[in-house]
Amino acid sequence: MLVLASASPRRREILARFIDRFEVIPSRASEECNLEDPTEYALELARRKAWEVYERVGGTVIGADTVVSIDGRILGKPRSEEEAYEMLKTLSGGVHMVITGYCIVHEGKEISGAVVTEVKFRELDDELIWAYVRTGEPMDKAGAYGIQGKAGLFVEWIRGDYYNVVGFPLEIVWRLRELGFDVLSR
Ligand SMILES: Cc1cn([C@H]2C[C@H](O)[C@@H](COP(=O)(O)OP(=O)(O)OP(=O)(O)O)O2)c(=O)[nH]c1=O
Fold this sequence. Notes:
Belongs to the Maf family. YhdE subfamily. By secondary structure, the protein is of the alpha/beta class.
């Protein structure tokens, strides 16, 4: 049995493009983490999510965690509209990294990695940032934006895997293929 240890509808949709049958069991692992390196942080949380679900239900379990990083800082999910505004202000006009750590637990062993995509934002004026914050889109997303939604407009270019920005790098699907899963059925 393949299990996606995630409550994110976006992760479920992306995996469903490649794999017909899997279960979705969100992790109960704590997201409290003091690591300061963004890659280490995303990896640690991905591992916790995957192992917590693996220990409960077994099978092959996928966990992932996405962070936005700029100037060595980690931007997670905003806790308020003010924080969402501050994050978008920080990202305006510059290049940042979106990092997704992933962990696949298979037959009691883990395969893990971190995928980095660079994203360049246009200059955003305050009026535009507030209008975007009021759409409600930023609130459940790392870095306070969703490239798949209205914030697609903010993006001048990206380098790397687009799906990684949405939270599910296709490197995960590639690893599943290496483990023998049929990723192109139908
Ligand atoms: C930057 C960016 C992030 N995101 C999302 C991906 C992730 O769902 C979220 C980051 O939070 P995560 O903690 O990685 O994931 P989650 O809490 O949504 O789900 P779970 O822990 O149960 O797997 O931000 C977008 O959807 N689009 C974007 O452009």
